[in-house]
C-alpha cells in the first residue's frame, strides 16, 4: 500500500490546467515532429526539487492514471514523487519494462536505454518514453540528426548526457519501428529525439 501523501509541502501545478496542458501538448508534439528543435516550456510552474521545469510540464500534460511511470531512485520517496502522485495520479513502477514513461535525473547512474520497453510487433506504440534531465541542450559535443521531420541535417549539442548515450541511441533507433523515444529537458527547455531519427556521432 502506498504511503499517505503529506500535502502541506506539495507545490501547485498549472494555474489554468486545460489551457496550459494544451499548450504544452502542442509544444511537445512540435518537438517530436521536428527532432533537434528546442521548445520553450519556461512558462510552466516551478517543479519540486529534483525535477526540471520542463519535465514537470511534460508530467502534468502526459502522465495520468493509465500511464505507469518509472522514477530513478534519486526522485523516489521525496517531493517529486509526492507531487507526481498528487497532481498526475500516475501509478509508479520500479520495473523499467513496465513503464510508459521514465524520468531520469541522475544521469551518472541512468539505466541503459535498452532496459526500457521498446514495444513489440503487436504494440509498437506501447514503448517507453524517457524524459532525460541534462545540464543543457547546447554546449556539448555535436551530433547530427537526419530523417523524418529534419530538413537535410540538424546539428544538436546537448550537454550532460549519460556515458555512451549516443551509441545507445543509435542502436535503439536502428530498431525502428521499435525502440524508445527520448525527451531531453534542461530547466524550461525541451528537445525530442524520437526513434525515427538517424544519428551520426563521432566515436559512436
Structural description of this entry:
- With 204 residues, the protein is of the alpha/beta class.
- The protein has a single domain (17-194), classed as Rossmann fold (3-Layer(aba) Sandwich).
- It is 23% helix and 18% strand.
- The protein is built from 4 helices and 9 strands, in the order H-E-H-E-H-E-E-E-E-H-E-E-E.
- The strands form 2 sheets. Strands 1-8-7-4-3-2 form a 6-stranded mixed beta sheet. A 3-stranded antiparallel beta sheet has the order 6-5-9, covered by helices on one side.
- The N and C termini lie far apart (44 Å).
- The relative contact order is 0.18.
What structural class should be given to the helix and strand makeup?
A: alpha/beta
CATH-derived architecture: 3-Layer(aba) Sandwich
The largest sheet is: 6 strands, mixed
**Oligomeric category:** single chain
Question: Could you say which overall geometry the principal axes of the C-alpha atoms support?
Answer: globular
Produce the secondary structure layout:
Elements: H1 17-33, E1 38-40, H2 53-62, E2 69-71, H3 79-88, E3 101-104, E4 129-133, E5 143-146, E6 154-156, H4 165-173, E7 181-186, E8 189-193, E9 198-200
Parallel strand pairs: 2-3, 3-4, 4-7
Antiparallel strand pairs: 1-8, 5-6, 5-9, 7-8
Amino acid at each position: 500500500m502506498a504511503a499517505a501523501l503529506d500535502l502541506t509541502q506539495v507545490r501547485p501545478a498549472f494555474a489554468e490546467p486545460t489551457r496550459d496542458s494544451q499548450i504544452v501538448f502542442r509544444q511537445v508534439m512540435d518537438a517530436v515532429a521536428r527532432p533537434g528543435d528546442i521548445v520553450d516550456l519556461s512558462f510552466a510552474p516551478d517543479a519540486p526539487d529534483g525535477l526540471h521545469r520542463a519535465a514537470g510540464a511534460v508530467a502534468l500534460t502526459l502522465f495520468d492514471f493509465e500511464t505507469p511511470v518509472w522514477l530513478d531512485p534519486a526522485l523516489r520517496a521525496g517531493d517529486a514523487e509526492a507531487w507526481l502522485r498528487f497532481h498526475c495520479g500516475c501509478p509508479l513502477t520500479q520495473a523499467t519494462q513496465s513503464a510508459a514513461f521514465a524520468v531520469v535525473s541522475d544521469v551518472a547512474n541512468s539505466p541503459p536505454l535498452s532496459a526500457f520497453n521498446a514495444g513489440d510487433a503487436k504494440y509498437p506504440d506501447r514503448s517507453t518514453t524517457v524524459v532525460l534531465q541534462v545540464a543543457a541542450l547546447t554546449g556539448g559535443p555535436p551530433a547530427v540528426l537526419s530523417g523524418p521531420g529534419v530538413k537535410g541535417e540538424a546539428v544538436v549539442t546537448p550537454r550532460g548526457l549519460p556515458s555512451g548515450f549516443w551509441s545507445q541511441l543509435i542502436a535503439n533507433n536502428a530498431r525502428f519501428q521499435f525502440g524508445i523515444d527520448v525527451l531531453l529537458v534542461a530547466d524550461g527547455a525541451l528537445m525530442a529525439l524520437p526513434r525515427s531519427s538517424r544519428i551520426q556521432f563521432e566515436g559512436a
